[in-house]
Amino acid sequence: MDNSHYITATNKKVTADNGITYVYREVGVKTGTPIVGLNHLSANLDNWDPTIIDGLAKDHWVITFDYRGVGSSTGKASNSIQAMAEDTINFIHALKLTKVDLLGFSMGGMIAQEVLLRDKDLVNRAILAGTGPKGGEGIENVTKLSDASLLRSLVTFKDIKTYLFFTRTENGKKSAADFIVRLYLRKDDRDKTINWFAYRTQLKAINKWGKENPADLSGIKTPILVVNGDNDIMVPTTPNTYQLKDRLSNSKLIIYTDAGHGAIAQYHESFVKSANEFYGEK
């Protein structure tokens, strides 16, 4: 395999002190602060947009991994967002890393917030995309929305992300189709699809997190870039994206127009440029 591009990157393994063996990929030059990607509900290694990962890897060291019990990682799926944050910290420590940047998308953005609350010194910078704060409006509806979209995807023979991540405008539909094609550019050594038990466990974790009392994020001084589309139906942009930005004292905000939950994929060229600038700031 060739580690210069994400679709040909080697699947690697590392075992943490908790006994879990995590499967991961890394691309880019292994210098500076690595970017650790925290992905969405049900995602495995192959669910990262390779255009985004390769775009970041031109200037940065990028690492993606499967949470415990997901894809090719061992163990049972964690049943709370907080447990997934501990999972993430265990993985980072297993790689002997002492400082990382985070790219948290969707559920991964929720996990990133919990990592920031648990270990502020571990994170240099973080991007929180397509996500919202704990207890945010409508987050507890993700299970109902996902189930309805799954049924629709089965009837139409389209990937569920077509309906959950993108607007139903012509621009959104084309972006969805292009994104799904990119997810299948990798032909060899693809990751294992999440099993049904792990998927439902993650859904319950998001539902629970959405019903919990809001967290106090005011103590987080880490530079944060909050990103979303203007019409996110999974984690409603209004008020969640704006509230998340306001609760973080050292944050910036990007809202893409005619875009939904997967705005970073829909506007991947613009997002990569902004992300590289953000991670490169001193």
From TrEMBL:
Q: Which GO terms describe its cellular component?
A: membrane
| One GO MF term attached to the UniProt entry | monoacylglycerol lipase activity
The residue ranges of the AB hydrolase-1 domain are 41-263
Sorted alphabetically, the keyword list is: Hydrolase
- Domain of life, source organism: Bacteria
Q: Name one GO biological process term.
A: acylglycerol catabolic process
Q: Do you know which Pfam families this protein is assigned to? A: Abhydrolase_1
Q: Which InterPro entries match?
A: AB_hydrolase_1, AB_hydrolase_fold, AB_hydrolase_sf
SUPFAM superfamilies per UniProt? alpha/beta-Hydrolases (SSF53474)
Specify the protein name. Answer: Alpha/beta hydrolase
Q: What is the lineage of its organism?
A: Bacteria, Bacillati, Bacillota, Bacilli, Lactobacillales
